[in-house]
Fold these 4 entries.
Entry 1:
Amino acid sequence: MVDYSSAVEEIQKQLKEKTKVFAFKKLEREVITTGACVECGSCVEGCPVDAISGNRVENKYVPTLTGDCISCGICYAMCPRAFAVHDELIGNVKSAWRVRSLGKRKRQDGGAVTAFLEYMLEHKMIEAAIVASQTPDTPWLPVARRVTNKDQLYDCGGTIYTHAPVVSEMIKGFKDGFFKQAIVGTACNIDAIDRMETHVAGFFSVNTDASVFKISLFCMESFNYADLTKFLKNESIKIDDVKRFAIAGGQFTVNLENDEKSWPVKDLDSAAATSCAYCQDLTGMHSDISCGNIGSDGGWTTVLVRTAIGEKVLQGALKAGIIEAEELESKSVIAVANSARFKKNKFYMLKPQH
């Protein structure tokens, strides 16, 4: 039988080999002071040097650092409210890449999403793709659009940071006889489809002839259209004059005809969609492929491949010369995971309902 001390040594070894380790101060900042602590005592009893005490403060059990932390990472890794390993943060990933479209069309970041859809349409892997596009008579107001060829697809390039009913449009597509579709959406959209696939009464459980390829966009938060317009107006910008929106490095950037302006994303909290406060998934863990700009240089798209069909699409697009791709370095994957952890921890900052 392995004694406790030997078990702790093995735990420390596993943490050093397989994940990033965090000191108690990080646990205190993210979990204890936010009110997310469940008072289970795993951090107190798991500390190999007895540096953490379970103190009673106004009859509440509060883990407190009372000794010298050796930054072994056990307290953070074993906390049920902390997120230490990549599977918890970005889900199952078969391979990770940075990708750039080789087409000459206007694109957002590396243009990988458009390239994947082009490849699938051209090779009859799908009959239609569902994407978000601008409403023709209201600039940057999103509308869900069904595209069936690459010319239509190129008209929809660029990211719109406002919710669009893409799942609704997908269902309409099936009603119209398009049984092989791809959809581009954020984690919340992908979760809706996952429910349709896994629930016993879900659409895809009942209709096995239908299929959908899921591409998720990295998303920290989306914005309410009216509030985003108001924010820009307060900055003396008409949304009609915006040529491109982008979020990178914690900055929200607006490109105009001959100018560019940016603000810290947190400055737009008042414009954020209320539903985003309840989401903890940055990358869309239930998708076939996840795409975003975190972890890659400008002009490239970070791509996380999650399924066998996702791998087939990436490799097919690469072989067809539609994209170029390089395997993502581990430090870049860590950058994505760190952003995912930040989003998960934002949930603990919500005002409690009781």
Note: DSSP finds 13 helices and 13 strands in the chain.
Entry 2:
Amino acid sequence: MSSPLQQLGIAIKQQRGRLGFSQEQLADRCNFDRTYISMLERGKRNPSLLNLMRLAEGLDITVSQLIEEL
């Protein structure tokens, strides 16, 4: 079974794919470094609430939509 951080990473990657964004494009939209996006998608980072909010905005969804399947 995947950890919640790995599940979040999968959700981020899936939504990014739906939008057709590269990690770099998403990072630019969120004002993050591309390596941070990579680490999130691999479940290696635990984002703060504020970063989750920025990430959801960059993915054109709400935080609740992003984490609904965790």
Note: Helices lie at 4-19, 23-30, 34-41, 49-58, 63-67.
Entry 3:
Amino acid sequence: MTKGLLRVFTAGSVDDGKSTLIGRLLYDTKSIYEDQYESIKASSELRGEENVNLALLTDGLRAEREQGITIDVAYRYFSTPQRKFIIADTPGHIQYTRNMVTGSSNADLAIIMVDARNGITEQTRRHTLITSLIGIKHIVVCVNKMDIVDFKREVFEKIRHEFQSFSSTLEVANVQFIPVSALSGDNVVHKSEKIAWYKGETLLEYLENVNATNDENRLDFRFPVQYVIRPQSKEYHDYRGYAGIVASGVIKKGDTVTALPSGFSSKIKSIETYDGPIEGVVSGMSVTILLEDDIDISRGDILVRENNRPITEQNIDLMICWLNERKLAISSRYAIKHTTKDLKGIVKDVQYKINIDTLQQVEDDKEIGLNDVGRISIRTTSPLFFDSYLKNRNTGSLILIDETTNETVGAGMIV
């Protein structure tokens, strides 16, 4: 019996072995072709390495291979008889934290890598904090390079105790600890006899069995309109369809929906997909919705159930992960992207910044710089229709964009 798709991402400090772990998963589950293996084997020999460098399966950029680090997010797909997996290899270098935020945004589960020699680092804390803020409830802490510390249990237990103490204040439902050696494959896919004191599952066994679906919101129907389809042809003269991705909830033909911001309601006449009409939809589906009445609806508007509306507000509090070298500036104006809606807003206040080492709120430091996390207040130029991030990850998130450079400077989770 299949358990569906699991979206996973890896995080951790530089050289903790994230890419090697993914390469080991792919290799030991026989999820790579022979010519792929021969290619990375030849590359490893040219680099003068003793063993086949499985990290090359995900580190595809020339700069990544030259420096031995991950820069961009690399996605890999593999499956077992129990489950299908999409796994994202995200960068560990502090310079590329924005890429880590991107790779984790749609994940169900996080693998936090910790080098057994170095223990918990600042990047471990930062990535764990961001993982918690993004709303991922399941974390696997892989204590890697156990072979270098002679598979000592006390090293593993010390890291586990420190991580548990650090993460106890975060909103994470489930944390699992597994001692591994990604290089030699211990406890990745196959059980290691060298770590006999560990009685738990291997990493793959845990990933196959964990109940870590994305906790999709099936209660609150939200359909941000991405595109209005008007063919303007004789055959489809009166056709008016609203295309987009269902952000959350379920809906079916004949149900009554309300369009925001207009507030007008109508019944769903039909629901169309690339493969033809269907009777109902659930979150994540790309569809075109046709209504019985002609209502003025455009891109950025949202369809909801008549008696289940999102919050409508211009003054918004959010947790922000700052992704730019130019610091956040109070009273500055930024472009805002929320679902399919584009608008502008100003930063009214910085309420506090989070100390990455202690996770405490620092209220006397209002300076939000690159890779900082804090809580801010903004005011938008027009009302925003949203839910809290904990309730709905799709309608509860937004990004801030620098209007002069068009760079994404902040990733926000609405509180």
Note: DSSP finds seven helices and 23 strands in the chain.
Entry 4:
Amino acid sequence: MQTQTEGKTVLKSYQTDVSAFVNQFLTLLTNTVKESVNDAAQNFFNELNRQKEPAQLTNIADGFLTRTQVAELLNISIVTLHRYQKEGLIPYRRVGRRILFSRSEVLEAIKITSKRKGAKI
């Protein structure tokens, strides 16, 4: 039969082993979570940077651009582009339900407007 001292020693040894295991487990878990969060954040920022790259401007039938393409070209929002349209600063054409802009007319309008206002659009 074990004495009380031997039982306490075994119990302390067991507690030490469990404590060491728990610490190793928590360290491993923490590192895994950190790596996962870092990977997710890196993927998020890569995707965000990819979306910020200007889309390649593809002409639609002889030099015409869509609203999105003009907004990217001028580095403005669609709302601002719409305001410029209403103010007559940027000429456009309606083809069915689509609004199209002539690239040369947009660039010319920018030159004229920036000379008039003393600032670029």
Note: The helical segments are 4-52, 67-74, 78-87, 103-117.
